[in-house]
Amino acid sequence: MLTGQQYKDSLDDGRLTYFEGERIDDLVGHHLLGQTAEFTAQGYDKYYNPAPDATSPLLSVPRSADDLRALIPMLHDAGMMAHVTSTSIQTLKTAAGKMEGVKPEYIERMNAYIDEAQRNDVRITQCITDAKGDRSRPPGKQDDADAYVHVVDRQRDGVVIRGAKLHITGASFGHDLLTIPTKAMKPGEEEWSIACSVPVNAPGVRIINTTYAPRHEDTRAFPFSSKYHYPEGFVIFDDVFVPNERIFLDGETSYAAIFAHSLGLWERLGGLSAFVDESDQLVGLAQLVAEANGTAGISHVKEKISEMIIHATLIRSTMEAAIMNCNIGPDGAAFPNELYVNAGKFHAAANYNVMVRHLHDIAGGAVLTAPAPADFENEEVGALARKYMSTSKDVDGEYRSMLMHTIRDLTADAYGGWKFVTNIQAGGGLYAQRIVTRKHYDMDRAKRLAMEATGLTEGQAH
């Protein structure tokens, strides 16, 4: 296993990563991006075991509902890079269990790669969303064939790929890029049916980073995003060679969708589990700010908070149902129930704006206009700011102001905007969850119950 320092040292491997127009040669030392490396390193140290044969529990493959339940909080504790790595490993395990009939060497390579990743304690980011070009056209009818990552040359010992993958959280901070088809492929789209793992520092890989991290000198008014931020990577594959042992699919169009569906399952479980804690967090902020404002006893405020509580409880219930009703794959790996994961993720994402709307309504306009922490330290206006931000002798003005800053940081600033979009898009948009939910819902039983309610028989229906 790696220590946090060994992880940070491993990032100095010649990778080509860019931020706001400049190439970054020292990720760890960068004033913004370095914070991500530091937090990831802390996750390494939390779970470090010096035993020579030890492997990280963060990279384990769950074998039961209890294993699943234990893994989720560890991933949240260790941070996003642990989450995307686990998602990558579980994606390969899930896909391998559904690929009977394809070349057996693909499954052997996936299992060997997982073993290697566990032994080396690496971090893997999953690359799925292509540039896509004109969304109304399939890969083979684009003006530019590179709109979807594809094979441009096949050699005896591997292939060469070209294209780009977008919205890849933490791409610059892992060791490998798990690159898979973004959707189902059809006959004639063999060159786009490629799944493989590519080292971040492979020749031809370039990553452009964006981040919601605050740019302010004094970041105390950003209590969350100043500490926990993960840049999004725009990953470019410019004629990148991939050796055979790291290729998990090459041209078999009928299996392309398996990778996308497998990733979607685990990505949505990660999103759902994040919603669980975040929803309780929003409820807590709503209650605290209502108490600070002196409005906690007002009926419409209590109603809004009750609605938020119900929403948070339903999200937690769907995650628990997804875990308790998990399925076991052919090799014993456990994966969450697809119906409950997708229904829960849809419900959480579709109703997030209602939770935030209630929170903003309860908190008031000070979410955007509260004085900064430094203002309270100013000799001329600090005492006055504290006086007028206070609502009673029991509520300090600076305390109430920090509640407002926290709400703004989480829901109404750069991170809040990122959250609004990723809640919908992470793991596929809401439409994707509708499709999978309908696929796994027991419609025959529902129809049978409806027929029983009518008093009619199936024969009469025909």
Care to describe what's here?
The structure is a single chain. This protein has 462 residues and is α+β, with helices and mostly antiparallel strands. It has a domain at 258-447: Butyryl-CoA Dehydrogenase, subunit A, domain 3 (Up-down Bundle), CATH 1.20.140. 50% of the residues lie in helices and 14% in strands. The chain has helices at residues 4-10, 33-46, 65-78, 80-96, 104-120, 256-293, 299-324, 338-363, 366-369, 373-376, 382-389, 397-411, 414-425, 430-440, 443-454, 458-461, and strands spanning 16-19, 22-23, 124-127, 150-155, 158-169, 176-179, 194-199, 205-210, 232-243, 247-250, 327-328, 334-335. The strands form 3 sheets. Strands 2-1-8-9-5-4 form a 6-stranded mixed sheet, with helices on one face. It has a 4-stranded mixed sheet with strand order 3-6-7-10. Strands 11-12 form a two-stranded antiparallel sheet. A hairpin with a 5-residue loop joins strand 11 (327-328) and strand 12 (334-335). Helix 6 (256-293) packs parallel to helix 8 and helix 11 (382-389) packs across helix 12. The longest helix has 38 residues, at 256-293.
